[in-house]
Amino acid sequence: MKRINFPSLMLVLGLLFIYLPMLIMVIYSFNASKLVTVWGGWSLKWYFGLLENTQLMTAVMRSLEIAFYTAIAAVALGTLAAFVLTRIANFKGRTLFGGMVTAPLVMPEVITGLSLLLLFVAMAQLVGWPAERGMMTIWIAHTTFCTAYVAVVVSARLRELDLSIEEAAMDLGAKPWKVFFLITIPMIAPSLAAGGMMSFALSLDDLVLASFVSGPGSTTLPMEVFSAVRLGVKPEINAVASLILLSVSIFTFTSWFVMARAEKRRRAEISQMLQMQSVT
Description:
With about 280 residues, this protein is an all-alpha fold. The chain contains 12 helices and no strands. Helices cover about 80% and strands about 0% of the residues. The radius of gyration is 24 Å and the shape is globular.
């Protein structure tokens, strides 16, 4: 009798625990019944009903917009922070700066949200900005939170890079900014993409920070879903969640495919250059 591989069994059970609820949610998004726990046959009416649910669709578009801008800002700020932590050798405040950058990773979101709320209220009283809390304050809060993740991911990639390539480019007369954009950025592009996708997902999923720093007319999708769940899960929520899951899956697969081809092309070019150097 073949013995059961315990690690493989635990892996399968763990994957089922994660993905089986998502599969059930997708199936019940096609449920014709108004009760999400009672199967009433297959139907697409809840997907078509999303077009009429303007409140939910507005929250979806608002969350996607905030997540998009958060990903861009977090990648830019996180990359700069990673360069400061890894490339400036005589930076005396590296330990303090590194702790400040990574603090949101271990700080409870309740404390972060309350601190940002007090900051925005104090700024509004002192300088008159922000006049009201809304998408801008949510974007700032999410950027503050997601920058830490990007900084950690990019820092790990920068520590693995071969500095001889950048030094060779500068020895040949390339300016530092040109080396950064033409050599360093392509080499750390996978980590930038990973940090951007992570920031997008974290911003789209956040509920606690948005609840503290949002105002009237700036409800995000998690806030809308959380408020609706108190009265019972509506079938439209299953439908919109399934669409988001499909979109994220397609985007993730496309990004992985593009980065895999780019990495394969880069390795082929490097091997070709090494062969040419060996010949000469």
